Amino acid sequence: MQKHLFESFLKHTLYPPKNFKPQSITLSNGILVNHKDIGVLEVSPSNANSHVVISSGIHGDETAPIELVDDLVNEILSERVTPRERVLFIIGHPDAIHAHTRFIEENLNRLFANENPERNKECLLANRLQAHVSAFFRSAKEGDGKWHFDLHSAIRDSKHYMFGVVPASTPATDIRPLVSFIQAAKMDAVMLSRTPSSTFSWWSAENFGALAATFEMGKVARLYENDMTEFDALKSAFVALLSGTPLPESDDKHPFLMYKVTRTITKTDASFSLTFSNDAANFTYFTSGEKLASENDVSYWAIEGGEAVVFPNANVAIGQRACLLVQPYTPDLSLPLFVNVDAEPGSVAAS
């Protein structure tokens, strides 16, 4: 197996050999490591009951997730961590990492829906990553657990430094184990969607019934300029999940909020504009009746109870999401919690 992989999964991904071929090795603790592709590494213990995808680098300038994945792989290859669950690690877009930009031609995290036409590098990447994840999940036994954590960093400030976004999917999957993980990782909030989104995490939830979420880890920074101690709790939760040990105790002193998406505002015309800055912090709150956006003769106003805005961006391509609007939500977690397409999140499955 390539020496650089054992030095750094990230280093190998950014500077791969020209003659790369898939390789595998069995570690001294019996763990099978299969380097399937540039930026794609599968770790397989025997008798695993869960199958976990941890992806990063889907946007190249979101570097804390990339460093975390590299660190987790190093812990496994050095045998400081012995996983009991199967895991697929992904560093998705090396060219964008080199360029320190979100993407080269097209937003990769909007291309996970179907087989893409081969019009640019991002389409080819999306097709390749979908193929790897499909093979990974399809080799699971019936009844096995499936998880997908797609790790990102926000491009703006946020009232919640770390938060999760749970996609809405057609399969009826009780997401309470995912909520428990997010709390154990000491994240600040979770947001429950209600519409499909063609993101990587949605694709796994929709096609494989995986417990899936997009995690926003702080704010974008240059590679190796992140304070990775800020994500120690998330790393500890990942190690526990992969090792088959109990998750860290959630801290009642650590604030944790849940939100439900009330609306998605999509840009359908070049005239679209927000009434506030694109730089507004995630979860900025607007009181009932405040104007939020306009497009031609259509205006959007905050609904009764007010709404907070997440991921605002008036400069997206036509047809893409310009922002999400959310309200606080407190479910009864003694009951199942489903997040289905075009339905209120709750204990009754819509599919």
From TrEMBL:
EC number: 3.5.1.96
Succinylglutamate desuccinylase/Aspartoacylase catalytic domain span: 51-241
Similarity section: Belongs to the AspA/AstE family. Succinylglutamate desuccinylase subfamily.
Bound cofactor: record note: Binds 1 zinc ion per subunit.
Function: Transforms N(2)-succinylglutamate into succinate and glutamate.
Leading EC class: hydrolase
Cofactor: Zn(2+)
Reaction(s) catalysed (UniProt annotation): N-succinyl-L-glutamate + H2O = L-glutamate + succinate
Pfam families: AstE_AspA_cat, AstE_AspA_hybrid
Catalytic residues in the record: E216
InterPro entries documented for this protein: AspA/AstE_fam (IPR050178), AstE_AspA_cat (IPR055438), Aste_AspA_hybrid_dom (IPR007036), SuccinylGlu_desuccinylase (IPR016681)
Domain AstE/AspA barrel-sandwich hybrid: from-to ranges: 256-328
Superkingdom of source: Bacteria
SUPFAM superfamilies: Zn-dependent exopeptidases
Name the record gives this protein: Succinylglutamate desuccinylase
Pathway terms, separated by semicolons: Amino-acid degradation; L-arginine degradation via AST pathway; L-glutamate and succinate from L-arginine: step 5/5
Keywords: Arginine metabolism, Hydrolase, Metal-binding, Zinc
Residues annotated for Zn(2+) binding in this entry: H59, E62, H152
